[in-house]
Amino acid sequence: MALLQIRDLCIDYRTTAGTARAVDKLSLDIEEGEYLGLVGESGCGKSTIAKAVLGILPRNGAVAEGDILFRGRSLPHSSLQELNRLRWRDIAMVPQSAMNGFDPVYTIEAQINEAIDTHVSWSREQKRKRIDELFAFVGLERGRAHDFPHQFSGGMRQRAMIAMAMALDPGFIVADEPTTGLDVIVQDQILHRIKEIHTRFGKTMLLITHDMAVVAENCDRIAVMYAGKLVEHGAHNVFETPFHPYTMGLCNAFPDLADRGRELISIPKAPPNLLTPPVGCRFADRCPFAAARCRAEAPALVEVGPGHVAACHFIDRAAEFRMKARDIGTWQGAAAAA
Ligand SMILES: Nc1ncnc2c1ncn2[C@@H]1O[C@H](COP(=O)(O)OP(=O)(O)OP(=O)(O)O)[C@@H](O)[C@H]1O
């Protein structure tokens, strides 16, 4: 059984303009020991999934249908008390650095100790030793544990956040855009440290990012979301031989994945409004290969290779699309046609 099983998950936000379905009938398994990267443009529902897993959806958001099972136990059907027991001990989160989870009025050490104290009764000495290990792992000077969060740089706070996430040795760690707002060198250091949690300690991890290149470098499986839907999922073949035109477009837009010297191409236009999503393929309006069928009928995920699925009506033409997708004119044509 997979560690995390997401089953036909639908998540709605109530807004004054109506109900937006941010995640629509999404199913995804994360196996024990796997490092999954969840990618997609801003607003496609990545963070909503992370929040639902952690039971921290905002008041106007709710799981409308489907389920999320962690070690077989339903998270949306768990009580707040049960979720609090799971948090830090079984599932921990490294949030966006911009909205780092530290309270400004307590020292870093006090906050890590508090997370520990809520779950286990360790002696002061045991906690001190654990913080020694954690700070050594994330590369922070031990003495700085007595600092307040504002005394740390953004990168140091993110390292401390990683230490806090690891404090109780949880089996599953969710990192939601953990390098937002950090400079490129610090981003690399943080992503490297997060990867080490997986390679050294064998943790199951979910990394949420909009950056295909980051996922290509760090994760062993990739899930691509578009407008609340899962459109492609598999191992590295997802970006080596993508089957969904949206994945092809994403690969074009990231320098490390596009061939050296080749022009970077961005996908024209914006994703659909989730208050009134189209009936057919949600990408049709931006897809250079869309046909009448794509606008009329939503494609289902089909197997395109071992452990590799994609949701496109024209899977059999993927090789042709991949060739054409490398040409900027293909995408400009789609923008002009609309
Ligand atoms: N509290 C909210 N109330 C209403 N709509 C929301 C709320 N939070 C998110 N949404 C909407 O739900 C959709 C998914 O948002 P989500 O933050 O999950 O996307 P994302 O892929 O994580 O984007 P980003 O990369 O920008 O964080 C978006 O259309 C967003 O506008």
Automatic annotation (TrEMBL):
InterPro entries: AAA+_ATPase (IPR003593), ABC_Ni/Peptide_Import (IPR050388), ABC_transporter-like_ATP-bd (IPR003439), ABC_transporter-like_CS (IPR017871), Oligopep_ABC_C (IPR013563), P-loop_NTPase (IPR027417)
Main subcellular location of this protein, as a coarse class: membrane
A GO molecular-function annotation: ATP binding
Domain of life from the UniProt record: Bacteria
Keywords, alphabetical: ATP-binding, Cell inner membrane, Cell membrane, Membrane, Nucleotide-binding, Translocase, Transport
ABC transporter domain location: 4-252
Lipid bilayer topology: Peripheral membrane protein
Compartment list: Cell inner membrane
Membership in a protein family: Belongs to the ABC transporter superfamily.
PANTHER family: ATPASE AAA-TYPE CORE DOMAIN-CONTAINING PROTEIN, OLIGOPEPTIDE TRANSPORT ATP-BINDING PROTEIN APPD
Protein name (record): ABC transporter ATP-binding protein
Organism: Neoroseomonas terrae
